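Bench notes, afternoon.
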Amino acid sequence: MLDMLHFYLIFALILYLLGIYTLASNRNLIKMVIGIEILVAAVNLNFLALSSFTTGPSVIGPVDPMVQVFVILSICVGGAIAAVAMSLIVRAYRHYGTLDVREYRRLRE
C-alpha cells in the first residue's frame, strides 16, 4: 500500500514541478493558464491519493466520498475559471494584439 502511495505522491510532485516551471518560464498567457490547471490537477491527485491511503487497509483502499465531492467540485470550478480566463485572454489579444505578459506590463507605464 505504501508503495502505491509513493507512486501517486511522486507523480503529483512531478506535476507540481511541471506547473511551477510552466508558470515561471513562459510569458504567454495561455501557457500560464495551462500551468495553473496542471497545479490544480496535482492538488486533486494528492487529495485522492491521501484519502485512499487513510481510509482502507487494502492495496487500493476505498476513497472517502467527501474527498470525491471536493475533487469534483474543484474540477468544475477550475474549468469555469479556465473558461473565464481564456475569454479574457481572447479579449486582451484582440485589443492589444499580443499574449506576452511583459508587453502588458509595458502598456501600464
